[in-house]
Amino acid sequence: AETAERADRCASVNDSMILSRTKAALSAVSAFSGGSRRKGPNERRSQPRLEDFIEKRDYIGALTLLEFLNNSPKKPAEHQNIDILPWMGYCYFHFGQYAKAMEVYREILQDPEPNAMNYHYLACCLLYMGMYKEAQEETRKGPVCPLQWRILFNVAHRFNDEAMLVECHKNLDIENPKSPIENQLCFAAVYFLRNHFEEACDTYKRLLLDHRDHLALNVYVAFCYFKLDYYDLSIDILNVYLQSHAKSAIAVNLKACNLFKLYSTAKSAEAELKALEDLDGLTENERALIAHNKVVFRSGDGALQVLPPLVDVIPEARLNLVIYHLRNDDIQDAYAQIKDFEPATPIEFILKAVVTCFVGQMSNSEEHLKIAQHFFNLVGSSPSECDTIPGRQSMASCLFLLKQFDDVLIYLRSIKTFFYGDDNFNYNFGVALAATGQYKDAEEALLLVQSVRITKSDYCYLSWLARCYIMNRKPHLAWDLYVKLEPTGDNFGFLQLIANDCYRTQQYFFAAKAFDVLERLDPNPEYLDGKRGACVGVFQQLVHGRGAREHLDDVINMLRNTQDASCDKILQVIAEWAKSNLE
Fold first, then answer.
1. DSSP secondary structure, 473-488, as one string
2. Which helix (H) or strand (E) holds 2?
3. Long-range pairs, 554-560, Cβ under 8 A, ≥24
């Protein structure tokens, strides 16, 4: 774990809009040459000092000086005592160039009698590059020390090695409040990575009380508040750090993310990031982070150009790419991105469940639907998520797939106030209401959906709305939906729904119209039987004073256009009754 002073390299923090450091950006450091002030004739030109660059965190400047010294045949007197390679490794590491730092430390370890601590430094590079097994192997070659245990603690977390976690916990003496701050920070970082944000936040706040001068702790607390959805508190505590380090890429990015979450608008978030665009000295990871977040803030604009190269650098890039494909109905592309992905956080489980559910519904695959149901259940029943909005959504989705709609409504009603105007919520809420026979409320919920894509061409939505109309005694509205349908293979099924539901609810006129069209499209005896029965039903209702006179004329035309002897007999009965009662 890093020391608290390194705020703009927040180890162990990642989010859908926050850079993860499990992978390294491998591009080279772009060096620059710095000029110096012209001295008077009697003045000696002063040489830049390495300590000055390090103090200012100007790692490009420091690396430029070190490269110059390394290539010079004779070092200037004031730089005689600089050990060049270790300092190069240090600068590359802190500049986020872990592959370069790794190469330097491997070169150092080629010496006959190297400082054994360099095994730990090499392991740190490997850890940040996501090469956990190699990091474990290298750090075990070094001397036993707190840094070794911190590295092993992080590796044990990545491998879910509970036995090693316990051993590291014991050797780091975490329970002792007087243990070194680096140990405490490492422990808090693992808490954070395990989504135990409250415990991590408590640790950081306790450390902050004892180390007010370690301003980076404010950033760590702000990250925890961000994860806990306390966006306003996160901004407040983050501003304490930004007063001293206004150009910190990580801190400014976190503030932008908070603003985006708080106000659901990209304008203020992008304004924060704009101040970073022209800064010198940004690492490749930081530039990647800014590009990634711009795509997020702009609702996916430029996603296909920006996100694919970042999938192995920013883990959230994969998730946002999947979301982009889902929003554009590219289900297969979304599935290709996530099918081999092992979820670890609630949002990852939810996203994989959603994509798998889509695939299952499109292919009628029970296997995929069971996997989706399992993932939804894991999140919805998790003690840490069960009372959150995503947790309740997940449990509702799990129960939806199990067709336990009464229980679905319990969960959806508990979060309804948070989703007023949300098309997807109203769609699912309406379907659940209809599935439990609450057709009046279901109709109201379904009519709240505003998306033209859903209301004009989503067959499932239109079918449920048609059923609600029929059950609410508005069959003419269901028939209007059919008339406005674009010609597709679903039209036949839509007619069957109208025909059967109207017949079952004794709304015979529209049942007869639907069966008439079905019988003309497919001369199936069942459709003829349904048509005859519906026509007789219309006539019977008219006889008992419950039907409309004009409906009888349409029924007569339907029967006359049917080549069937039984229809002729029905026409004779109708004609005899009409002669006596309608003249």
1. T-HHHHHHHHHHS-SS
2. none
3. 554/509, 554/512, 554/513, 555/509, 555/512, 558/512, 558/513, 558/516, 558/531, 559/535
278-324: per-residue pLDDT in tens? 776 677 788 888 889 989 988 889 999 999 999 887 878 999 999 99
Contact yes or no for 531/558 (Cβ under 8 A): yes
User: With a threshold of 0.85, does the pTM exceed it?
Assistant: no
Q: Report how far residue 551's alpha carbon sits from residue 554's, in angstroms, rounded to the nearest whole number.
A: 5
Which tokens belong to 115? 């400082």
Report residue 99 as tokens.
């592959």
d(CA 498, CA 233) in angstroms, rounded, equals: 54
User: Which residue type, as a one-letter code, is found at position 490?
Assistant: D
| Residue 203 C-alpha from the chain's centroid | 27
Residue 287: which H helix or E strand, with range? helix 284-297
Model confidence pLDDT, tens digit, residues 355-408: 999 999 999 999 999 999 999 999 999 988 888 899 999 999 999 999 999 999
Cβ atoms of 20 and 14 closer than 8 Å:
yes
Residue given tokens 């449920």 in the structure block: 464
Tell me if 402 sits within 8 A of 373, measured CB to CB: yes
- Residues with Cβ within 8 Å of 114's Cβ and at least 6 positions away in sequence, in order, are 108
Q: Looking at 247-326, which runs of residues are DSSP E strands?
A: none
